[in-house]
Amino acid sequence: MESRMNAWTWGLLVLLGLIWGGSFFFARIAVHYVPPLTLVFLRLFLAALALHVYIAGRFDIYPILKARWREFLILGLINNALPHALIFFGQTRIGAGLAAILNATTPIWTVLIANYFTSDEKLSSAKIAGCLVGLAGTIVLIGPGISTGSEAPLWALLLPVLAAVSYGFAATYGKRFRDVPAPVTSAGQLTASSLIALPLSLLADRPWTLAIPPLDAILAILALALLSTAFGYILYFRIMAAAGATNASLVTLLVPPSAILLGVLFLGERLSAAEYAGMALIGFGLVILDGRAYRRLARTA
């Protein structure tokens, strides 16, 4: 039975959409002063530290981490370290709003990957239609990057899409953690991904040679780690507990508008008509994948 959303859970969902949309905004500020791999490490390490403080040894976290550290390393790689690095590298050349729109294709890739690798989540006609519409929106967005005259190079447009593919694999792989308390899964994957990101940052960026970033970049890094990552996970699991995973997934539709709004208000970003059209197609594809709007229309009819 589908859990219902009340005014409180809708408010939490909108807040989460703003917070996760803010992650693209904060990253756009910070990546001008901190190299992407070092920014990935700072985000993951600070968020992991905050979640360990929040959990404070509850949920048998340390025995679980010890017993399943290999699985957490894989999840941390494909759900944190790799996609965050891809997005941050992309955001060195594209704005917060466009990166968020491209990354919003995550549910589409999740459906396609789950169809191939699982036996209980096969494609239906509605899912196929949603994927096709969403992929059409993606093509509209990255198409101009193929032209040499485009302001955003093709590689920068493709990286957030590849991050979405990585998130899709993580969603399928993450099903094996159903028996693990959600806060432990969050802390475990962030801890593991911090260990992955640390040597990459040290080797590639030599962070001890970097200049101290200005205050606005430091605040953006803290907000990215503590607000958008640590608190975002806590808020997401609270929504999921109150209203179910399907309702919590609606946040995917709220992240791009939030990132666009913040980019327009504070960074002076503007989207073209084609980019808005791509966002509309992706959003429509996600609505089709969700399926609830169609079911309600069918019940009304």
TrEMBL record:
It comes from the Bacteria. GO terms for cellular component: membrane. Residues 12-142, 155-288 form the EamA domain. Pfam families: EamA. It is found in: Membrane. Keywords: Membrane, Transmembrane, Transmembrane helix. InterPro entries: AA-Vitamin_Transporters, EamA_dom, EmrE-like. The chain crosses the membrane at residues 7-31, 37-57, 69-89, 95-116, 128-146, 152-170, 182-203, 215-236, 248-267, 273-289. It is a multi-pass membrane protein. PANTHER family: AMINO-ACID METABOLITE EFFLUX PUMP-RELATED (PTHR32322:SF9), INNER MEMBRANE TRANSPORTER (PTHR32322). This is DMT family transporter. It comes from Rhizobium pisi.
